[in-house]
């Protein structure tokens, strides 16, 4: 047997060396079967063959398996040099394969894994450079072919919100009571009777009305056209004309009165659009949406103004109640929802505060105790001081006993998988999501808790141990989101005594999450090929006879909803901070100082917050996201980085803005699917061989001189430099820019 293994090894190596990769794959596969104990090395070799053959998926699969096996069970029993080099080798193979598959962030993740083992590894550094070049090249190709990656209006649906039918009836009642606009046939019939026929006179009236309208004599125009209307009340043209005059006079209910007479089938798209505008002014939003939706539908979506107005109404009615007490409002722009200042906001002031709708602790910080429901820190003296506790004297231990806040951890009594800061949180978690996925009632959900415990690793359907969840956030985000929806549906079913959920139940439960935009280029199922069956089995039985069918589309949509909108945060006040506050007047604290030098460990959370999720990006951001304690619960706030004027858009940064423009652009495109065209991107250059101001190219092999201050712009001469300085380079050159972590916390140089 041993000789057979040796023979297979020699054959495979020779085939690999001679470039016969298909046969080498066969030999390595035989070797894997014959000698599964030494699989890591063989998997790496086979992955190399697949790379040579351009079969990136198979190379990735082998690389992953090698990595998993080595981490779980180093072949030589410890994290010795050989094990380290195997991890590095497998990381490089995975990184290369991912890069070829277009999975750039994943690729970066693998290279980082290798760098953790050997921070100075030359091969990885080279591979990282190559990765950046691939991204930049792709970015350039895309920017040449596309100006804009997506259309915000087409991403936002116009579908009716649950409960809108009742609201629509209420608004119709307002129309009838307040404006005497009745939704019945009698009202229409009455106006349809032709009183006195005199086509010639009517034509003269219309002609004269038109001349008055053209010269802005609105009242005269109104008198003339009203005469024509009185002679032929059902005439669609007269009504449309008069509505236009009323519109110019800003008599909004009169506009609607005239349009209402026109039978629906005869209303032109412009009538629906203008009626929608008048209804916006009367602030009858559900009716306005109805009219603007009609205008959009009748033009097959071509009337962009109607589609944008629709979204403006929707955003206003959904978000105004949330921003009532804040100095901001949400509006709809070419880039979708956006946040604007309602008043002047001074530098350092709070722009907005926001509470998470769904959140989960990052897999990497799971060892730091925090409440599963509200993210409150649960760090104990044991967690903070660790072995230092053993070195302390009685006095200091007493001080800790007296002043470290009591961290009473409540566990889920059924599964013990979730920890909470209080009974209130425990019950809240149960009611809102945990009763759907507590393994005690839903055994399939145990896989999710295990997956989180194992940092994304688990068994595939065919029993292979590998990284099943390689997303940038915890899968618990999606699990909680679906559980919240399922839990709401169950509540509604119980209330309505329904054995099966209705479409209305689902629509109502999903409605709050319609706030979050979703856009991604690679289907989630391709990124995470093993996850869908896991989610499907977890939500097959949500209790009470309910199944949440996690389709491919649902998975894809929710995956990108989270990816596009998540914000990291940490509890800003921890028991450590409270302890520090408590001891400040106690003399014994002096003896403690030497033990208090470390920052408390931070539990990292990611959250979807409704208002924050409306903030767009700028590399010249005027606001910064910070952690905040809101009534004892961790949340987020935005602080003004400079004075912000009323009406100005509130902009944050999604990436580390210390990167040069080309990389910022590439990362924003890769991670958020848009090309940034902010003020800073306009006044910084991409290449030294192009004048940032007039875009003339330098002679072959030559570069222009860089701005002496920021070195981020290049000019063909002093005239261009001065021109650019005046036009806008000055402000961005003299500003300190935000530094937040880029995706995966890595800042490409
Ligand atoms: C967190 S959301 C921001 C709010 C978003 N506009 C909406 O309607 O929900 C992030 C998405 O907004 C869009 N976005 C943000 N900043 C942008 C910018 N500067 N230019 C173009 N699109 C941007 C991108 O589609 C991005 O994926």
Automatic annotation (TrEMBL):
Keywords associated with the record: Metal-binding, Methyltransferase, S-adenosyl-L-methionine, Transferase, Zinc, Zinc-finger
UniProt domain SET: residue ranges? 311-655
Annotated transmembrane regions: none
Q: Which CDD domains is this protein grouped with? A: SET_SMYD
Domain of life of the source: Eukaryota
Q: Where is the MYND-type domain?
A: 371-438, 691-733
Specify the protein name. Answer: Uncharacterized protein
* Gene Ontology biological-process annotations: methylation; negative regulation of gene expression, epigenetic
UniProt keyword annotation of Disulfide bond present:
no
Write one Pfam family the protein is assigned to.
SET
**What PANTHER family does the annotation carry?**
HISTONE-LYSINE N-TRIMETHYLTRANSFERASE SMYD5 (PTHR46402:SF2), SET AND MYND DOMAIN-CONTAINING PROTEIN 5 (PTHR46402)
**Which N-terminal residues, if any, form the signal peptide?**
none
Record carries keyword Transport: no
Its Gene Ontology molecular function terms? histone H4K20 methyltransferase activity; zinc ion binding
